[in-house]
## 1
Amino acid sequence: MSFPNPFFRWRPHPWHGLEIGPNPPKVVTAYIEITPFDLVKYEVEKTTGYLKVDRPQRSSSQPPTLYGFIPRTYCGKRIGELSPTAARGDGDPLDICVISERPISKSEIILSARVVGGLLMIDNGEADDKIIAVLANDKFWENVNDVSELPPVLVERLRHYFSTYKLVPGKESLTYIESVYGHERAEEVILAAIQDYDDAYGS
């Protein structure tokens, strides 16, 4: 019996071994690290590619959507240049928030996401963009093409979460949302992150 083609004999690294997506920058692959049900911050360990516990959430905030990253992207020089106030990108893969009508409680999954916008977050002087997308085959959201067409309260929840999820009582916050942008700017950010990845790791 032959193996299917393509076939990975070993599990590919989520950041470096998965495809960017079926039609980037409009439709991309998202590797999900955190669900709206998680009170612990998980992230991919960059050396092994396994999901690790980063920290329990210090506050009562929970992510309002699925949260992960786009494979083969990197927030480097080009991402920093797209922000008027950031010194550089944060040196991580590009983050993505994916909206789904039906609750998805599993993390460490991959899905196709249709890009509708993003948040420009500044974290300690570095650009840490959060792409906003909807599940590609979700009929409930199929007519949404831009972040302006989402319910405002959902966008506000995303803003609030990323503005507060690193808050430490008694300490000044160095994280804030500078702007919300639409799908055209989001696609520009994704292309810049793909180019930054090629610069850092090769195509």
Note: The CA atoms of residues 110 and 144 lie 21 Å apart.
## 2
Amino acid sequence: MKEVIHTQDLNVGYDKKTVISDVKINALKGQVICLIGPNGAGKSTILRTLAGMLAPVNGTVYIGQEDIHSVRPGALAKQMAVVLTEKLNVNMTSAYEVAAMGRTPYTGFFGKLTEDDHRIVSESMQTVGAMNLAGRDFLSLSDGEKQKVLIARALAQEPQLIVLDEPTSHLDIKHKIEVMRILNRLSNERGMTVILALHDVDIAVKSCQFVLLVKDGKIMAQGRPEDVVGKDTISSLYDIEGAMFDSVMGSLEICNEKSPDVFVASGAGTGTPVFRLLSRMGYGVVTGILHKNDIDCHIAESMKLTIVSEECFEPVTDTNRAVAADYLNKTAFAIDTNFPLGTYNCDNIELLRSSVKPVFSLRSPGEIERLYGNNLNVTYVSSVGRLQEQISGLSAV
């Protein structure tokens, strides 16, 4: 596959002082490569060096087979577009006019746009879904709308490579997703190479083909997200205490290591919102019996809850049944999250049936009657939100 940009023996920094050493990047056509790491780690310094805006402390950046500093600015702008975090101060300028600035490398001294230039600008705005913004004043746009227009400006350069510094910063979730979908579409459909820095770890892991973890003056690790980002990686990268990144679900979970007050019978993701609710309320949680391949088991592990776990696709052992029963007897009350019932996960229901502890069930009244009969200890709860109201007055053990 075609090599678009690569480095050799590269150290980056300012005033001949190295900030990040041994930066190895070999970006291929159509790749989306992401730098993640804490503020001040040097991500922007790497990007500016790759873009030719900073001279390397040591080593070389090659675009194609040429040293980037040997390429004339006009020629470089036809190969690479850069979208930085600095605000663009353009008074009385429409969004279309800002996007049209991307044609500067092609328009000559007087900057007059040809019919072909206008076509390219319009197509660029259409590609990012910004044509409806064309006539509006750029400074009046929201941050998400501005980001679309700036990407359209980059596309109007017709580059093979786009470098972006925090393109989702300050955007709401809708615009973050839209921006990343645009970049992935450009990669997949046009074969553009995208190199960017992101703070949104979950988006980076789910959207990018290759990641570099930057911290303490070096690249901690790099590779495919599936190979590089483990459950402890993000906590180590950002020095996070009290939370853990779940690499299976791609979410950051707040840890709850309190001794169990509540027994939660769950499965298939039905327990996750309940775990989070109880943790916010200050309760300790024991999960009941969960198979190790269950979504709730992954989340509970990331939250550091007390877990009674069973091997994947195996019947529950007598030992685990006894351990779960012991936990249930020591907790103040139990919650049935309305998890789907199958051959191997009926044991939690059996435990709740035989318990004298109060049980709050998110199942329908008819299902409660079928499973629990006339057990007066079982209370119907219509939703997780209502659950908070019904247990808020209960004391922990």
Note: The chain has a mean pLDDT of 92.
## 3
Amino acid sequence: MRTISIYVPEHAVMEAVGDPRYLFNTANSFFEASDRPAPFKVQLVGESRQVKLQDGVFSVNTDSLINEVEESDLIIIPAIFGDFGQVIEQNKEAIPWIQKLHKKGAEVASLCTGAFFLGATGLLDGKQCSTHWAFSSEFRDWYPNAELVDGGIITDDNGVYSSGGANSYWNLLLYLLEKYTDRETAIMASKFFAIDIDRQSQASFMMFKGQKDHKDKEVLKAQEYIEDNYDQRILVDELAEKCAISRRSFERRFKSATNNTVLEYIQRVKIEAAKRSFELTTKNISQVMYEVGYSDTKAFRTVFKKITGLTPVEYRNKFYKEEPDLELV
């Protein structure tokens, strides 16, 4: 029997505590229904017997205190919300506990923004990880030694796991369930909870917002130019010239300030505009392509799919909803 320890910090997202408990206990019921022993011992672990969540609106009664748990097969760190620095400080007593159990062989998984707490343990240094796409720039600033996978739903790096944003953590939970049991059980759980079992990317849900929390005025000037002129053909040499910087220096400074190369930034601004058009209008692919400054259909489709994980047609089918004809209703 594997022990699953769900750590319950103050300011955890309630669903990210309850859902993993529900999933692994449901898996137990699958086994028991077929006269097999339950594969999991599931416990909620905290620094107190009762932990208040979401500004005290909810509270959770824990099964064990962290100083009572000496071993575990898996520690799950739920999503957290609020001021991440304050949350980590308020729950810092759990950091050495997680580190100690990991040294004893426990695997560790963070759900969504729980990656910020996992990062504070040092276990993400030199490892791939994922978090909610909206906090990716902030995460990179906090943990430059971690390798953040843009758009990733699941990362697995030598027994340290993480998931992408919001409900993406269900995909990590199913991944772990399959690893600890079998594919059949994971498929059964995916059907029970109505979750797409093998979704690998959160790219189609991402909204690109350029990193502007920096002090490089020339780079900021270039960013604003790109965003104001995404419908034009933009050359790196022209941007460098506008900023009165050599191309080599400009590219280095741009990447350092924004975490994107100049070309990546241009592409992402253009594709973000294209996404909005596909979501809100019935313009065809060629119209949208020209409006965001592309003239090569193949190049546009390739870049669009690279960034969103979907073709333009797939993206429109997923997000565009035609308004009903009120005269026919």
Note: The first strand starts at residue 2 and ends at 7.
